[in-house]
Amino acid sequence: MNLNHRSVQDLNLFISNERLVRVSHVKILGIVFDDRLIFDQHINNISKKVRQRIGLLSRSRHILPEKALITVNNAIVLPILDYSLILWGFTYNSHINRLERLQRRALRVMSFSAFDADSDPLFKRMGIMTIKERLLFNTLIYIFKALNSLSSFNSLNYLKSKVTDRALELQIRSI
Length: 175
Prior knowledge:
The chain is mainly α. The protein has nine helices and four strands. It has a domain of about 90 residues. Helix 2 runs antiparallel to helix 3 and helix 2 packs parallel to helix 6. The longest helix has 21 residues. It starts with a helix and ends with a helix.
């Protein structure tokens, strides 16, 4: 069966004789999944939330010392960027770069730097990882936990069972 984009749009699915309606995006546990899994609507939502919090940092920077601003950033900005990053973080580089630009803006605001100042030294000085580094770090933690059966959902065994089931299914078909 050859499925192209047009045939998928014309596909009618039913559950208990009820037709499923095709939607362009759906929000599940705070993550916006779109019909092409590019997460552009989700990135828009994250960007909006991060911009609001950068405004809060900007208003607070005249009152709080830099160390306190870093703590506030870690409390109100980073959780938004980290939430399910391993799920949506492998989207287009343009989406990730957009979020990284916001992250750089937050660092410049906290340090009273010029809008075009180099932010790499700021990441080091403040001990904050870029979003790309955070994605790599979170992915490595996930793989470590999966390999060592440390997560509540043992994804490695789940994947092994699925691969084994599929291999058996293909073997039976070839007989």
